[in-house]
């Protein structure tokens, strides 16, 4: 990467398109790295944008940063929102027509070397860039919710995205202590959601089969693979489980049980009349009411801190 | 539960059948709760049992407990090993014939009200108890490896196991600050492994499809669902993700992507000639060599501590 391709922090101007929960969480993340909050612009077409941002964004910020909220630029006109941006990060409606149209419009008004990032969880850059003149500028930067807490960013280029754009994106996030991982092929749901949804499907199946309740299933995950995978992912964990012989020895020992489980995994479907929804929704509401996400986020942050701390001790 | 059913700590005498890694890890866990280490017996038919236990068990223990290792009773004769035990916990070979035979023999020599627990990951109590006179005494107590660190114990009764035995088992583990969860039906792999293996299958599929490497996949899990699920299991997490509308609102928003991922999940198989093994084993060895499980266990312990700490703050 040549120096001219690097975004120097003092030159960063970020425009967020869409001020939903993901937008506000990214705003909080960016604010914690920008010396000058006026280099952050939030664009949204909602009428009450100023009062909405001023009353909701502080919830994502430590008290000492609340004052910076008033310095953020708010915009309801797209051309002026993106005219001077070096990074444009989109988290609008999950709707291909909306995204395809807005990127063509953004491209018209944004500086030539600005980076274009979409936070979409499902619409690949190759679809979103269809009306752009230069599709090499756009890629997906998919966070794990909420992005101001979770380190992961799935960086998913389309086949048209240029390598330089991927590199500038990865280096931006690394410099901020986050964990960008480049997903080499556009695929349905990218990686994190596919993995989590595979486990969710089996979770629904087991609850529906009367094996455990919703709450028991959560407790099982919270006291086993959750803390384990916070420290070592599935391959590393099973590799350790095999001792000196590694993953291969593990599969030699327990591969029969692994295959028997795979053969027996349940198949459930999403949608009206599938039978499981009403039961699972009711159990979940009953168990948790409205979740205290403040507590969840504080705890998750401490989990990430101790993992880093122990790693740095070696 | 009546008082007569409770095991009072001062009366506990535990015999572990099998001194592999699970056996030693359970020995370490029990030692940290027993005031008198001579109330723990380890039975194993290996010739070098004494030197093996004395050189390996201390690795699982904090330094101040090393001295207690020499007070543990070691046994190579089954009748004398179980004759006075109140709890007999088996982690021998994963082999139905072995387990069926040993429980019949244990039943002959153990006190009438001793609890019988198997650590098996795959052979249900209804199979293991087939040659017992009284099948109501046996159940599975399946740990998540290593049990001296991980709180979860899957308690899996057979249809014959008595409620009193389940209750005494759960209350024993609760009193030791662990998390026993009763699995209501015997099913292949119980719950934790089924869930983890569902995610593992998709992990292998994504690596094999060239979407990410083994190491990138682990990093994705370690920086997203791992720390999240250490704090809130999948149902609670998605319930929070739906805001005030909960899981139902979450599925309304993103159910289309969930189903699209489910439809697209890969199917891989375990076994010679399946193609993925060589590649995945090589990548994993290359990435990790031999994993430092000491570091992993210390970090996991701290993760569990901060989760408990924040929970108790509310």
From TrEMBL, chains A, B:
<dbReference type="InterPro" id="IPR006180">
    <property type="entry name" value="3-OHacyl-CoA_DH_CS"/>
</dbReference>
<comment type="similarity">
    <text>Belongs to the 3-hydroxyacyl-CoA dehydrogenase family.</text>
</comment>
<feature type="domain" description="3-hydroxyacyl-CoA dehydrogenase C-terminal">
    <location>
        <begin position="189"/>
        <end position="257"/>
    </location>
</feature>
<protein>
    <recommendedName>
        <fullName>L-gulonate 3-dehydrogenase</fullName>
        <ecNumber>1.1.1.45</ecNumber>
    </recommendedName>
</protein>
<keyword id="KW-0520">NAD</keyword>
<dbReference type="Pfam" id="PF00725">
    <property type="entry name" value="3HCDH"/>
</dbReference>
<dbReference type="Pfam" id="PF02737">
    <property type="entry name" value="3HCDH_N"/>
</dbReference>
<dbReference type="InterPro" id="IPR008927">
    <property type="entry name" value="6-PGluconate_DH-like_C_sf"/>
</dbReference>
<keyword id="KW-0963">Cytoplasm</keyword>
<comment type="subunit">
    <text>Homodimer.</text>
</comment>
<dbReference type="InterPro" id="IPR036291">
    <property type="entry name" value="NAD(P)-bd_dom_sf"/>
</dbReference>
<keyword id="KW-0597">Phosphoprotein</keyword>
<keyword id="KW-1133">Transmembrane helix</keyword>
<keyword id="KW-0812">Transmembrane</keyword>
<dbReference type="InterPro" id="IPR013328">
    <property type="entry name" value="6PGD_dom2"/>
</dbReference>
<feature type="transmembrane region" description="Helical">
    <location>
        <begin position="12"/>
        <end position="31"/>
    </location>
</feature>
<keyword id="KW-0560">Oxidoreductase</keyword>
<keyword id="KW-0472">Membrane</keyword>
<dbReference type="InterPro" id="IPR006108">
    <property type="entry name" value="3HC_DH_C"/>
</dbReference>
<dbReference type="InterPro" id="IPR022694">
    <property type="entry name" value="3-OHacyl-CoA_DH"/>
</dbReference>
<dbReference type="InterPro" id="IPR006176">
    <property type="entry name" value="3-OHacyl-CoA_DH_NAD-bd"/>
</dbReference>
<feature type="domain" description="3-hydroxyacyl-CoA dehydrogenase NAD binding">
    <location>
        <begin position="14"/>
        <end position="186"/>
    </location>
</feature>
